[in-house]
Design a protein that fits this description.
about 625 residues, alpha/beta, Rossmann fold, binds S-adenosylmethionine
Amino acid sequence: MGRRLVTISDSQLRLREVIGALEIGDELFWEPTRIVQPGAWTGHLATAFWLVKAIRPNVFVELGTHTGNSYSAFCQGVALLGLSTRCFAVDTWQGDEHAGYYDEEIFVDLTAFNDRNYAGFSKLLRTTFDDARNYFPDGDTSGGIDLLHIDGLHSYEAVKHDFETWKSALSRRSVVLFHDTNVRERGFGVWKFWRELAAQYPSFEFDHSEGLGVLGVGREQPSLVARLFEFAQDPSAAPLVRRLFASRGDTFRHRARMLDLEHHITNLSGDRSRLGQELELVRRDRDGQSQAHQNVERQLQQLTESLSWRATAPLRAIASGLRRLPGPSSFLETATAAIANVGRDGAGSSKDPIFANSYRRFRRWTRTRRDLHGSRRRLLSLPDLTPEEKGLLRRVSLRVHPGDSMYAGDGFHYLAVGLSANRCIRDALRSAKKPFPAGSILDFPSGYGRVLRFLRAGFPNADITAAEIDVSALDFCRRSFDATMFVSTGSFRVLSLPRQFDLIWCGSLLTHIDEHAARDLLRLFREHLSQGGVCVVTTHGRRSAEWLQGQAATYGLSEAAQQKVLQEFESKGYGYTDYAHQSGFGISLVIHERMHQLAVDIGGWDETLFQEHSWDDHQDVYAFSA
Ligand SMILES: C[S@@+](CC[C@H](N)C(=O)[O-])C[C@H]1O[C@@H](n2cnc3c(N)ncnc32)[C@H](O)[C@@H]1O
């Protein structure tokens, strides 16, 4: 009995000593701001907090971020400790053979999280590890990276390559972390490389949560980390340190497992036939809803003209009518709330900002709807529309996002441009003279879907990907036109698209980039065009040059910029100038011969169509078929 008490007390004393020596404090109890699937890293979140405190890095780089559990913990540590660390996450956000290949939603979600929480000091670099290395100077010519977390592909060769590529960027205080040092399956080889490194550098290995290796590469290690390395050699201290962090890590690991289970349950319960039935119900619901919205809209339109203090009673009646609608849009919710409050504490008066704002938005919404429905009717009455085009126009969605700068109050032009793109695409497909599968379509850049809505209506079963740098536009395309999102930030040279496409539509992008970027973009398209696929691109050609010369259009360019682009167009066949105060984005003009040559240089496809100024009455259209 007496002996047991002494033993317990000894180990408690040792624990206290270890905690004191490593100065483990509050960070052990911090609540992580991000725990998402997959949860493999979550067991180390508390360790990440402590490492940030111990190292106080000037520069932190993570290779392999995926959904961001580890990266966000390091950023959280930086924020809570008030450090001036600059943090960089490097990933293609496409996945690899160990992590699996995943969808664009992951990058979109992490970008939004990063923007909300850590935009001041953290950057997501969407590129390969090797390419990102060029953006960091060697450690001996600058401060270098103090904390590097390597968590990419986990084969022996890949981890070794990553370490050796990035070693020269490390600082003299640098610490390198390796995840998955404790996995011995599926071709993982971190454990093997870790064993080689641990024989050369001071180190400490946490065994839990697939293993995390902490390696002291720099010659001047931060004092707390140096103490951790000393404990690695101490058989009574090392297990205590491991247990301490593992037990806290377990809490987070369990939370992540709960998420896995919830996800699993959701998947199980969502079997295909039930979803099919639900979809049918939703469709019916939506049709009814749209009818009801139209009725209410008509009533509101009548009332808005006579809107005043005295009109509060009928407005409230409308508001309660709106509330009864199945699943009203967020706009209607706001408008409904504002209208329902009319007369209360001054709410609803023209001076009430909530009401005024809702009312303004509502007016814009009704104006846009009226405009688009009217424009559709006018277009349908045009004699030169084919029956197929009329059908398309009847089916096309008229949802326009308020942030869509392509819609400037002229619904007729907005829809006519989409219809004109559809005509060009159909001509391009015919020109390729191949059976066209239309299984997968890329719209790059999609914007808020001016053309994409026609692609969706024309190819209802196609898997359509929208590529954009504007995440809000992408999200709208996903929700409204069932498109898969691809965030296309970064140079065209290093971008890699998630799949091959049968049809690529690129309207109004080559019109804004220089010849180098145009070559890179065409190469990107060629590399992602499936066999038999067709790529349709538009450019500014002779019609736009004539407009510039005659000042019928200036494209927002200064006199000097206009002259530059025209002069290059004449002399080289490809003219380009930046917009004022922008770099790498402006106006380009290109002649047919030059474009043809660019495509020939890339090779592997044929130009099957060239139509001068056939899109929107001024842009030239090309089709290249693989
Ligand atoms: C294991 S996951 C990262 C897990 C993450 N640290 C966490 O906390 O969950 C590996 C990631 O590395 C990325 N990746 C692998 N090799 C890459 C490379 N050569 N360049 C860029 N990203 C790469 C994959 O896209 C994947 O998202």
